[in-house]
Specification:
The structure is a single chain. With about 290 residues, the chain is α+β, with helices and mostly antiparallel strands. Helix 5 crosses helix 6, helix 5 packs across helix 9 and helix 6 crosses helix 9. The longest helix is centred in the first third of the chain and has 29 residues. The relative contact order is 0.10.
Length: about 290
């Protein structure tokens, strides 16, 4: 009897130890660590595939492929391409990573998912991760920031960067049509200023999708001021000064951020009868208070 009871206790102990080991291993592989008091994602390098990063056809450094995204050590990568030292710091909370070099300062906002540099806001194509103790960023976002062309090899084993050393990092004035930015930020603010950033981007996407569509005018201004399309034009809200979030959302849209695909319409069903939209269009997304349609 006593032997049976001891056997049960031993089995329970073994099961408890195995469960602890399993939980611990999962936490290491997918959770976070604290460095200097800041929470930093952990990703073990053995869970990544190696990718050769080329610069104008010559080997530059190693990259890492993870779930379809190629990452590079941000500091090393930019130092090699730009030819000057870079200093990376974590700001509290961890959601901000600051990378400063000669003539530029890059801030990565992890949670909203974008990079600011020289007045621009560039979407992140994946959250930064730690690999072998190095902060790694998606290579697509970093090459866009510096104005380089990125060519991915057919087999995915390498990425080739076309970039001329010494080329200035593009600024907001280099990248954005200021008239488009002016009106896009205003319509985003007027239509969705209280919505989450994803929803604000969605409103901007609808405007830019219309610009590209043959069914609508071919400029941001003309799309916004097309008769009977945006109620904020009729009531005058379009002329209100946009807040910082609206300007950020507009810049992200102009840099290619997309939250609603090919949607051409949106409504707030709490404020209007959406039966025509539901009966004649295809619903695509609901973000915050808005429904989007194509």
């Amino acid at each position: 009897m006593r032997s049976t009871e001891m056997s049960r206790k031993f089995k329970s102990l073994i099961a408890l130890v195995c469960a602890f080991i399993l939980i611990f291993s999962l936490c290491i592989n997918s959770s976070a660590i604290f460095i200097g008091g800041y929470k930093v994602p952990v990703l073990l390098s053995e869970r990544c595939a190696s990718v050769s990063i080329l610069w104008n056809g010559d080997y530059l450094c190693d990259g890492y492929e993870r779930l379809g995204t190629t990452y590079v050590p941000a500091t090393e990568f930019l130092e090699l391409l730009l030819g000057s030292p870079c200093v990376l710091k974590y700001k509290q909370p961890y959601s901000v990573i600051n990378l400063k070099g000669e003539g530029f300062e890059l801030c990565c906002y992890v949670d909203p998912g974008y990079i600011t540099v020289n007045g621009r806001c560039v979407p992140l194509d994946g959250s930064p991760i730690k690999i072998d103790g190095l902060a790694c960023f998606p290579i697509t976002s970093l090459t866009k920031v510096i104005g380089a062309e990125l060519i991915t090899g057919i087999n995915g084993k390498y990425c080739n960067i076309k970039y001329t050393s010494g080329t200035p990092i593009p600024s907001a004035n280099d990248v954005y049509n200021q008239n488009d930015l002016y009106w896009l930020s205003r319509v985003i603010f007027a239509e969705s200023g209280t919505q989450p950033l994803e929803g604000m981007i969605g409103v901007g996407n609808v405007v830019l999708n219309r610009v590209e569509s043959i069914r609508f005018p071919n400029s941001v201004y003309d799309v916004i001021f097309q008769k009977n399309q945006f109620s904020v034009v009729d009531c005058g809200m379009i002329y209100r000064e946009p807040d910082e979030r609206s300007i950020i959302a507009a810049k992200l849209c102009l840099e290619g951020a997309d939250s609603v695909g090919e949607s051409l319409y949106f409504i707030n069903p709490a404020l209007c009868n959406g039966s025509w939209f539901r009966n004649n269009l295809t619903f695509t997304h609901r973000i915050g208070e808005h429904d989007f349609f194509v």
